[in-house]
């Protein structure tokens, strides 16, 4: 396995940054920025695989399935970040998208030594987190060989869950274990082996795409507005009012009225405005149209 690690592209020396310690501050930042530009290009090349993954996730969620992220270190933290932002952004239940890190929540702040090296720990996560046949499991690992992640996806496949991998090294071990492997090849890191940098950025971009595109496909977005927003704090209340006004063309006073009547549910407020239905009736139409505001509005206009 040491030979495998030594062969990883992300562990190789970046010949473009070997003099970075001799640069002034601006020079250091320019080198980092120049390398970061390669990330979006690498992600663009794997859009076909990302699309496959999104379709897999969307299909599962339509049938009541959930999305699980598992990773170690930076990869695990990024999965948890993406999962935690789905409920406030799209109004989904926290159980719909879940993120876990090798070593548990303690590892979010402090490294838990050895946890990422245990395949058995990864296998046990599937049972401990209640992953079932209808769910989708995403294993995230820059190297593509982290034993914890390999254990996760192997056990997930055994219980019949769909499996996706995200790695930043080509010809990795993970791709042999999952149905779809997303591999943006970002090249050697600015600081040799520091995969929190380009690899982490690429992983974050891919995770953003997975959940954002899935939520769009599930009708959680109208135009490019997050109409499933739950207005749970002052900032989100103001955003909800702006979204209502943008969509309907009505002033803030009308937005406040409908949001109050809808229980501060933006999509329901818009549906009530356009349909003339009360909150219960409007909610029923939305439910009949799988929660899609566009489909629901089309249904009442037919």
Structural summary, described in words:
It is a single chain. This protein has 302 residues and is an alpha/beta fold. 52% of the residues lie in helices and 8% in strands. The protein has helices at residues 2-7, 25-45, 47-62, 73-84, 86-90, 119-128, 147-158, 198-217, 234-248, 252-261, 266-275, 279-288, 293-301; strands at 67-71, 97-101, 136-140, 162-166, 180-182. The protein has a 5-stranded parallel sheet with strand order 2-1-3-4-5, sandwiched between helices. Strand 3, helix 7 (147-158) and strand 4 (162-166) form a beta-alpha-beta unit. Helix 4 (73-84) packs parallel to helix 8, helix 6 packs across helix 7 and helix 11 (266-275) crosses helix 12. The longest helix has 21 residues, at 25-45.
List keywords for this structure.
5 strands, five-stranded parallel sheet, alpha/beta, 302 residues, globular, 8% strand
**Beta-strand percentage range:** 5-15%
Query: How would you state the average pLDDT, rounded?
Result: 94
The Cα radius of gyration reads 22 Å
Instruction: State the end-to-end CA separation.
Output: 62 Å
Weakly predicted, low-confidence segments: none
Task: Outline the secondary-structure elements.
Layout: H1 2-7, H2 25-45, H3 47-62, E1 67-71, H4 73-84, H5 86-90, E2 97-101, H6 119-128, E3 136-140, H7 147-158, E4 162-166, E5 180-182, H8 198-217, H9 234-248, H10 252-261, H11 266-275, H12 279-288, H13 293-301
Parallel strand pairs: 1-2, 1-3, 3-4, 4-5
